[in-house]
Amino acid sequence: MSGTAAPDGQRSVFILSPRDRDGLCHAVQAAGWHAIGARRASDAPQRYLRSEAQIALIDMRDGGEAERLLAPLVPATVAGGGALIILVDAIDTASIPALLTAGATHFLTEPFTQAALNATLWSAERLVERLGGGAMHSRRAQRIRRGDALYWEMDRNRGEVRLSENLARQLDLPDRYMTASGLLRRLSRPERRAALAALQSLGRSGRSAAFAHDVPGRDGDRLVHHLRYADGVPAADVEWLHGGNEQEGVGRDYLTGLYSRQAALDWLDGRAGLATTILLLSISQFDRMNAAYGQVVGDALLGRIARRIERVAGDVAEGATVARIAGTEFLVGLTGEAAERDRATFLARQIIGAIGRPFSAGDHLIRLTARCGIAQSRPEDDATYLLKRAGTALADARRTDGEGIRILSAEKRSRQVDSDQLETDLRLALDRGEIGIAFQPQYSVGQERIIGVEALARWNHSQYGPLGAGILFTTAERSDYMLPLSAHIQAEALRQAAAWPRALSDLRLSLNVTAADIAQPGFLSEFLALVDRAGFPRSRLTVEITESGLIEDVSAAAALLTALRGEGLAVAIDDFGTGYSSLAYLKNLPLDYLKIDSGLAQDISGTARDRIIVRGVIHMAKSLGLKVIAEGVETEQQLDLLAHEGCDYYQGFLRSAGVSSDELVALVLKT
Question: What pLDDT digit, counting tens, does each position of 326-340 carry?
Answer without folding.
Answer: 888 999 999 887 888
